[in-house]
Specification:
The complex is a heterodimer of chains A (288) and B (286). Chain A has 288 residues and is mainly alpha-helical. Helices cover 69% and strands 1% of the residues of chain A. Chain B is mainly alpha-helical and 286 residues long. Chain B has a domain of 184 residues: Orthogonal Bundle (MetI-like fold), CATH 1.10.3720. The mean pLDDT of chain B is 88. Classes of the chains: A mainly alpha (288), B mainly alpha (286). Chains A and B meet through helix 1, helix 3, helix 4, helix 5 and helix 6 of A and helix 1, helix 3, helix 4, helix 5 and helix 6 of B.
Chain lengths: 288, 286
């Protein structure tokens, strides 16, 4: 590879042709729609969201009250999801990035399955979770079923991000450790993995973001129950499912739906900022 | 570096984890196929498009005609791509060739934020904002058009980000030679740079199509969900995904199996799109 060629900057080519107005218009339209969406969300949601909203139980099918049990259920689902994703994802990405030669069959098939898994529609994850976790394994409509279904869903994203971080660790580090007589697995765990911590954190944050945004995979795996969950075998409603239920099934639920949406989007934006700044700090770009 | 003298147990554990992730995919396909077997064996997948009506719960004469929902899914998906692709391409061109540095960052930032908004929030916004506006033109408001617009907004970030990246990676020589030939700026962009990125534009549209096809919550909220083949943009439609979400809660036996069969159909369609993307990308590498 020679040095990358200088980027061409056509802005140097004098005044823009009038036809460029079309692309300016398109960009302006997108910005306007985004502003409209944000404005609507804030306008309809901001009156609802306060401390009381966050710490009280919903009443009147969600038309009044708050979202406390829903936040708790969401956290539990997330905890189950991460408890399954993190060990499986970490070990798989170490295997893929550190221990497989290019022509390894298991590695190649794993990579292709992860790509395929990333493309599966979320409603199909929901069908699978319902058939396998809820009925097949007898976990019922529960936080456990929902969390495990989400784990299957975010695994590709998590593994891809961690693998990116592992591969970014300079080869000289591995060579040095190798020269000191460490075995490949020891090198992977003691030398490479600690240096990839930012990528692991970023992968976690991106995965949490994806899991929080998901609705379709949860409606028939973790269910609709709005009570405080007492164990992982209880059904629990996630924040996203709450927004859906209020918007679709409860007349007069719009205000609380927007309030919940505002809370969810605020959390997601925050997580996204954290992930991208961690990755950027280490010169990586978030995978899509 | 070849793995030398490794502890076999540790290597075995790591390899099992990799095999575990493969197993997930296998299980998904196995369970979706397994649950569809009832309908596939007794009726056949083709009943989804040969039966006249959708009454899968009927005890005496169940029918599985999903044509209105298949058509609804295809129309909503195709409509969304038709709206979002030109808009996304124009945005990417703006960001790459017309915007100042600040504007570029602003548009890219907004696109990234749009990508992060959950589909259920798009659906809620569509239902409370777009649907009343559409209802003012022609009732009932919850319609194919609402679905197309919300889906288009949802897949726009995918399209813009992928095309933007492709345009950024165009070799400088290409534009410089075109400029040396005396072509105008808009000629360079639309006759040289954009056409030479056609593969990435193809990939972007296929990926966006796959996303729109599999989307559930947004269309479920804004499309009205009547099982009827749409005759105009203002008609209410039900997509395959929305149908699964609506009926899973109470579906039993053959009905449940029919829903899994429609999930299988979705999986197949997405598989075709992914195969198309592989084909486009494989040619790039060689």
């Amino acid at each position: 590879m020679t040095a990358p060629s200088r980027r061409f900057d056509p802005r140097g080519l004098g005044p823009a042709h009038p036809s460029s107005a079309v692309s300016v218009g398109a960009a302006a339209a997108v910005l306007a729609v985004f502003a409209w969406l944000c404005f609507d969300m804030v306008r309809q949601g901001v009156g609802v969201v306060d401390w009381q909203f966050l710490v009280h139980e919903p009443s009147d099918a969600g038309r009044a009250g708050g979202i406390a049990p829903i936040l708790v259920s969401t956290l539990w689902i997330l905890a189950v999801c991460l408890a399954a994703t993190v060990p499986l994802g970490l070990l798989t990405s170490i295997y893929l990035a550190e221990l497989t030669p290019r022509d390894d069959v298991v590695g190649r098939i794993t990579r292709r399955s992860l790509d395929a898994l990333a493309a599966v529609p979320s409603i199909v994850f929901g069908l699978f979770g319902n058939a396998f976790f809820a009925y097949g394994l007898g976990l019922g409509l529960s936080i456990l079923s929902g969390g495990l279904t989400l784990a299957c869903m975010i695994l590709p994203l998590f593994i891809r991000t961690v693998e990116l971080g592992l591969r970014a660790v300079p080869a000289s580090q591995r060579d040095a450790a190798h020269a000191l007589g460490l075995r490949p697995i020891a090198i992977a765990f003691r030398v490479v993995l600690p240096q990839a911590t930012p990528a692991i954190v970023a992968g976690l944050v991106l995965g949490i973001g994806r899991a929080l945004a998901e609705t379709a995979a949860l409606i028939f795996t973790s269910g609709y129950q709005t009570r405080f969950p007492t164990s992982v075998f209880d059904s629990g409603r996630s924040l996203s499912v709450h927004i859906f239920d209020l918007g679709a099934n409860i007349p007069g639920g719009d205000a609380r739906a927007y309030g919940s949406a505002l809370v969810l989007v605020a959390i997601l934006f925050l997580l996204n900022r954290i992930a991208t700044s961690i990755l950027r700090l280490f010169g990586l770009e978030a995978p899509r | 570096m070849t793995p030398r003298s490794d502890r076999p147990v540790a290597l075995f554990v790591l390899r099992s984890c990799a095999l575990g992730t493969i197993t997930i995919l296998v299980l998904i396909v196995a369970f979706v196929v397994g649950e569809s077997v009832d309908v596939l064996r007794n009726a056949g997948l083709s009943r989804l498009w040969t039966d006249p009506t959708w009454h899968p719960a009927s005890k005496t004469n169940p029918t599985f005609g999903a044509v209105p929902m298949i058509v609804g899914t295809l129309f909503a998906t195709a409509g969304a791509v038709v709206v979002a692709l030109p808009l996304g391409l124009l945005c990417a061109v703006f960001v790459n060739y017309h915007a100042t540095h600040t504007l570029r960052r602003l548009v890219n930032g907004v696109i990234e934020l749009l990508a992060g908004i959950p589909s259920v929030v798009y659906g809620l916004w569509g239902l409370t904002t777009l649907v009343p506006i559409i209802a003012m033109i022609r009732g009932p408001g919850t319609s194919l058009l609402a679905g197309i617009l919300v889906l288009a907004l949802m897949i726009l970030p995918t399209i813009v980000l992928l095309i933007d990246q492709a345009l950024r990676e165009q070799p400088a020589e290409l534009a410089l030679s075109a400029a040396a030939l005396g072509l105008s700026k808009s000629r360079i962009i639309w006759s040289v740079l954009v056409p030479s990125a056609w593969r990435s534009i193809g990939t972007a549209s296929l990926l966006a199509t796959a996303r729109a096809l599999g989307e559930t919550m947004a269309v479920l909220l804004v499309c009205g969900n009547a099982i009827k083949t749409p005759t105009s943009l203002f008609d209410s439609v039900r997509t395959l995904t929305a149908n699964i979400a609506l009926e899973m809660a109470y579906a039993m036996d053959t009905h449940r199996s029919a829903l899994f069969a429609s999930g299988l159909l979705l999986l197949g369609l997405v598989g075709l799109l992914i195969a198309g993307i592989e084909l486009l990308e494989r040619r790039v590498r060689t």
